[in-house]
N-acetylmuramoyl-L-alanine amidase
Amino acid sequence: MKKLILLFFTIFLFGCNTKSYNTAYNDYYKNQQLYINALLNNDKKTQIKALKELIECGEYLNFDISTYKKKYQSLIKTSQKKVKKTSYFSKYIKIHSTNPLKITIPSNNIKHFVIKRKNIYKEVIDIKNAITPKFIKRKIGNITLKIAQFNKNTVRIVYSSNKPFYFKYEIKNNKLYTYLYPKTTLTKKTNYKKTVFNRKKVIVIDPGHGGKDSGGIGIGNRYEKYAVLNIAKKLANILKRKGYIVYLTRKSDYFIPLKKRTHYANLKKANLFISLHCNIAPKHITSPRGIETYYLSPTRNERAIEVARLENKEIAKLNYLDQRVILNFLNKDRIISSQKFGIDVQNNIINTLRKKYKYIKNGGVRPAPFWVLVGTQMPAILIELGYLTNPLEVKRLFNPTYQYYLAKGIAKGVDSYFKKNP
């Protein structure tokens, strides 16, 4: 009897709800989102669970689920292979990167404190029961990082500078991550009206690339990662003054994997996701210029695919089957919402800039398979703000005044979208 009750609750909680077509379709869509996130986070157990329910729902709905069955079978085979178990956890910390700092630690037993003296600012972390294999000293801008053995059982990490800086850290799965960036002041002091439609709306802005990934390198050896970060900060300031809740995926020059950017937006329960980039023209295109906005969707347009390929380098590790599965999961309603959002933003950028500048080309709104937008649970767009290979546009993209008006146009587009879609 107990086994029957347990079986009933297992089916009720985890099986596909086939009471009606609508309930089965809702379960099918929920598991699509669950599987995408699990795939991007390399969570095999959740992938198997989501695919199992997708297949069940798909069979009831009479959908073509052959691709999902293949993926499910391959995951089951992999999971059945024996995995070697380690009987101990090394006390040696393993350093993966220094900017941002990422190290494997023996446990979450750490101590953080701050030292402030005249012209000295220090953020200190002590890792207990740990040993570091070597002394490390790195210069990160005007901040110095030191990692050393403080005593027999403690490794000490020290960030120091003669100027104030922001610092934060987090621990995930026995890995310590630290982030730092200089304190900055807001530039424009324009007062914006806070209206009903933008109250409590959450916007996540993603400045593309960063750290080891410079993005495009244009005329005059100018890096994409710096231009988009400055524009993102200006956009964040404008939106905050309008009453929006705003988050940046990165606030300084450090690298974040594509999958973590959208995962961050989902964690913040964002209403909109905006990824900022600059374009690089292929050699066969002469005199390239213009601003283009993209939303996630399969496409056969060669130009859109070519632009997407440049931005998708990091996700190329995903095999063809995984890429097909993800693109098959794209929800039509979200594609339509993203397209509408893209149109509002593109129109407002062009109209705002044309009031101040000549030779502003409208590159339009297009679908493209940008992987940075995969996994978002909200309308999401990627804006190519101009060409680093165009002599006029590259100068403008690094000009603070032009950056401000670009940001102002995007913010107007956000307002316009929420007015139409409250």
Residues 14-77 form one domain. Residues 1-14, 82-89, 184-188 have pLDDT under 50 and may be disordered. The longest helix spans residues 332-354.
